[in-house]
TrEMBL record, chain A:
Pfam families (UniProt xref): YCII (PF03795)
Transmembrane segments: none
PANTHER family, alphabetized: BLL7171 PROTEIN, BLL7171 PROTEIN-RELATED
Highest taxon in the source lineage: Bacteria
Domain named YCII-related: residues: 1-102
Identification of the protein by name: Transcription initiation protein
SUPFAM superfamilies: Dimeric alpha+beta barrel (SSF54909)
Family designation: Belongs to the YciI family.
Organism: Planotetraspora phitsanulokensis
UniProtKB/TrEMBL annotation, chain B:
Gene: rpoE_32
Organism per entry: Planotetraspora phitsanulokensis
RNA polymerase sigma-70 region domain segment(s): 77-142
Domain DUF6596 as annotated: residue spans: 235-336
SUPFAM superfamilies documented for this protein: Sigma2 domain of RNA polymerase sigma factors, Sigma3 and sigma4 domains of RNA polymerase sigma factors
Biased composition (Basic and acidic residues): 24-40, 47-62
Lineage: Bacteria, Bacillati, Actinomycetota, Actinomycetes, Streptosporangiales
Name under which the protein is recorded: RNA polymerase subunit sigma-24
Keywords for this protein: Sigma factor, Transcription, Transcription regulation
């Protein structure tokens, strides 16, 4: 089955990132790189999204499309990237997610 | 003490020949049914009428179920429904379709057995109904039809599949209330109506929870298997949490007037015993089983003849089941010694054992209980546990110390009636009557149900 792991950043995590020194930051990126290498055989696709302030939302449920600045839900937790994995079942997807070394929340959803 | 629901499942005296050798609890160490005290005694009438030899479709010919027979019936269904579910899921590879067939067979049994008597071989009867129904409703799924045609009882299953079943039903990716409903329906063989009645929620609500959970199992790819070793401790925790919740729900809602309803404590004990048999290397399972049995052992003394709750301090301890207490305590000790891996359930059981083994309330070993609460707050920290610890503290170091400890919990427990009630007791002991009254008023305002209020203070005295 295919699942998408959505990586969710919190405000606190963003702050922590900002406060990191250069060395710490490099280590953090290395840890993420290593995670992708480790699970390379299961990851079919992945992307990192540009920061949330770059988001634009269009609502199509009115007479005319309405375009607004920002993400579709204003919240303290935002999706910052995703990885698509191909595994046997949810437990295997959860196992991969468990070792994710960066942002503190991961939503796991199957592709239909 | 109620011992029904564990007894009349075909292993009653004289019917052993009907029972496949791999029934749960065939190991007498784990099986309350082999305990003479759990002998059903008044064997219900239909139990003797099981030799009609109708085999695969055997239907007993006895009507007129007695008062306890409802529970015996529930016990038989519980014993067999989960095996059928496990076999069908393995066969079809489709949890949802298999579960539908089981539920259908269970409902048919609940309708017909009270009238026709429990068949000689309930398992075979359920298999037959499920297969017939499956061949009927799954007509379009030719793949399933072919598989169902192969379904025979007994299934040649080298291992007991019910553990897989339990892990799937209690998967943490399912909402807790869905885990409970699914476990009751799939593993314990309750109908949706029975679950709704036990939890006092509308039947459609339960039905919807189950439907959603089954959809999620299918669509999200929740596997039907025992978790890998590294996941096992965490996953076992969710399973035990479900059993513990069931036990609590059943224990708190059990009153003499409520005796007609399905006794969830029966289901919780049965599940814990099944888990203890299937996962003997996990001391926390034994701990939970011991905890449940220790509480049940004093069940007869919990209510007076007018059906009112009796506080621990005032209970007639001669009505406690001493033998059951000894056995549960021995079970706990064995598990603790064999594995030396303490956990919250073992510690809670040890606290319950301290209370249960005291000859009188005055002889309670509070110092030991306090040490155990120290362990519990370390293993499973929670404000409520600290509050209970404060009660033990009062008996060891006095009301002043306990009150100071409670004060630290104000932020977490200010909305919790029992916290105020506990403070009230301590303040009264210290001669601060006005403050005590104010706390009691707060407690009352926060607790809607007067019976629950009484119950809460009883639990409080338990430590």
């Amino acid at each position: 089955m295919k699942y998408v792991l959505m990586f969710v950043e919190t405000e606190q995590f963003a702050r922590q990132l900002e406060e990191m020194g250069e060395l710490e930051l490099r280590q953090a990126y290395e840890a993420v790189g290593q995670w992708f290498t480790e699970h390379a055989d299961k990851i079919t696709h992945h992307a990192h999204l540009a920061p949330v302030h770059t988001a634009t939302t269009m609502r199509l449920d009115g007479a005319e499309p309405v375009i607004t600045d920002g993400p579709f839900v204003e919240g303290k937790e935002v999706v910052s990237g995703f990885a698509e994995v191909e595994v046997a079942d949810l437990d295997e997807a959860l196992k991969i997610a468990r070792s994710w070394p960066a942002c503190p929340i991961v939503e796991i959803r199957p592709l239909s | 003490m109620s011992t029904t629901g564990q007894s009349g499942d075909g292993s009653a005296p004289g019917s052993a020949g009907d029972v496949p050798a791999d029934l749960p609890g065939h190991d007498p160490r784990h099986d309350p049914r082999h305990d003479p005290r759990h002998d059903p005694g008044g064997n219900p009438g239909w139990g003797r009428d099981r030799d009609d030899g109708s085999g695969d479709r055997g239907e007993g010919r006895d009507g007129g179920l007695g008062a306890r027979s409802e529970q015996v019936l529930a016990g038989v269904v519980r014993e067999h429904a989960s095996r059928l579910a496990a076999a069908l899921i393995s066969l079809l590879g489709d949890f949802s379709a298999a579960e539908d067939l089981v539920q259908d067979a269970v409902e048919t049994a609940l309708r017909r057995w009270p009238v026709e008597g429990i068949p000689q071989r309930p398992q075979a009867w359920l298999y037959t109904v499920a297969r017939r129904r499956g061949l009927d409703v799954l007509r379009r799924e030719s793949n399933y039809r072919a598989k169902l045609a192969e379904l025979r009882w007994p299934e040649a299953a080298p291992t007991d599949d019910r553990l897989r079943l339990i892990f799937t039903c209690c998967h943490p990716a399912l909402a807790p209330e869905a885990q409970i409903a699914l476990t009751l329906r799939v593993v314990c063989g309750l109908s949706t109506a029975q679950i709704a009645a036990a939890f006092v929620v509308p039947e459609p609500t339960v039905a919807q929870r189950i439907t959603r959970a089954k959809k999620k199992i299918g669509q999200a790819g929740i596997p039907y298997r025992i978790p890998a070793d590294e996941e096992l401790p965490g996953r076992l925790r969710s399973v035990l949490a479900v059993v513990y919740l069931l036990f609590n729900e059943g224990y708190l809602s059990s009153t003499p007037e409520h005796a007609q309803a399905r006794d969830l404590v029966d289901d919780a004990e049965w599940l814990a015993a099944l888990l203890a048999q299937l996962a003997p290397a996990e001391p926390e399972v034994a701990g939970l089983l011991a905890l449940i049995r220790l509480h049940r052992a004093r069940g007869a003394a919990r209510f007076d003849e007018r059906g009112r709750l009796v506080l621990l301090a005032d209970q007639d301890r001669t009505r406690w089941d001493r033998q059951a207490i000894e056995q549960a305590a021995a079970l706990l000790t064995r598990a603790a010694r064999a594995h030396r891996r303490p956990g919250p359930y073992q510690v809670q059981a040890a606290i319950a054992a301290c209370h249960a083994e005291a000859a009188s309330f005055e002889e309670t070993d509070w110092a030991q209980i306090l040490v155990l609460y120290d362990m519990l707050t370390y293993l499973a920290p929670s404000p409520v546990t600290r509050m209970h610890r404060a009660v033990a503290l009062r008996h060891v170091h006095g009301a002043e110390a306990a009150l100071a400890e409670l004060q630290e919990l104000e932020h977490d427990l200010a909305r919790y009636g029992l916290w105020h009630a506990t403070r009230a007791e301590l303040l009264r002991e210290l001669g601060r009557a006005d403050e005590a009254r104010a706390c009691d008023e707060q407690a009352l305002a926060l607790t809607v149900n007067p019976a629950q209020q009484a119950l809460l203070s009883e639990r409080l005295r338990w430590g």
